[in-house]
Structure formats: C-alpha cells, structure tokens
Design a protein that fits this description.
The strands form 2 sheets. Strands 2, 4, 5, 6, 9, 10 and 11 form a 7-stranded mixed β-sheet that branches. Strands 1-3-8-7 form a 4-stranded antiparallel β-sheet, with no helix packed on it. By secondary structure, it is an all-beta fold. It has strands spanning about 1-5, 10, 20-25, 30-40, 45-50, 55-60, 65-70, 75-80, 90-100, 105-110, 115-120. A hairpin with a 4-residue loop joins strand 7 and strand 8 (about 75-80). The chain is elongated, with a radius of gyration of 14 Å. About 0% of the residues lie in helices and about 60% in strands.
C-alpha cells in the first residue's frame, strides 16, 4: 500500500503565502508524476500543478507566477509554494502521485486526504 500525507494548509490573509508538503510512503518502487489538485465548494476538482520525476513542471494558467511546485525524489515528497493568495484560492488541496508499487510492479494513481486552505481577512 501507498500513503500520501499532506501538511501545511491553514488560514492565511489575502496576499499571504503558504507552503504545502506531501510525503509518499509505503511499497513504492518508483514515482512518476506528482502534483496538486484543488476543489472549492460546489466546484469540480482542478489541476493546480504537476512535476515529473525529472523536474518538468506544468501549471494551471491561473497559478502561473504565483505558485511553485518542487520535489525531493529522495524523500518522495512534493511541495507547493503558494504566494499572493486570494480568496479565490480557498479550497481543499489534494496531493496526487503516479506510483509503481514494489511487489506487483503495477502502476496506479494515489491521492492524499486533502488539506484545507482558506484565504480570508
């Protein structure tokens, strides 16, 4: 089994910053893409940013220039630095990983439980 554990969410004022972390653990052989998605109340889950094992990144247009995704392959951990936050960024943020597991060598998607980010004065 594989677990993704997120941390770093919370309440922040408009214009502020937060850094999210997500650590993957368990029977991991390798991890391809890791990323962050978010879901606001009444809306569909949407991509925030992705990063490949080689460090190539992809951002949703509204996050470009404000958010930075990074990754530590040795720790199986992905980070999301969020700057210039606005109330529109309020959502539950979910970590995602595309993982090959050890025993079966099968590849599947794993998701974290989500961490709440609230931007409000």
């Amino acid at each position: 089994q594989v677990q993704l554990v997120e941390s770093g969410g919370g309440l922040v004022q408009p214009g502020g910053s937060l850094r999210l972390s997500c650590a993957a653990s368990g029977s991991i052989l390798s991890i391809y893409t890791m990323g962050w998605y978010r879901q606001a109340p009444g809306k569909q889950r949407e991509l925030v940013a992705q990063i490949s094992s080689g460090g190539s990144t992809n951002y949703a247009d509204s996050m470009k220039g404000r958010f930075t995704i990074s990754r530590d392959n040795a720790k199986n951990t992905v980070y999301l630095q969020m700057n210039s936050l606005s109330p529109d960024d309020t959502a539950v943020y979910y970590c995602h990983a595309d993982v090959v597991v050890v025993v079966s060598r099968t590849r599947r998607d794993y998701w974290g439980q989500g961490t709440q980010v609230t931007v409000s004065s």
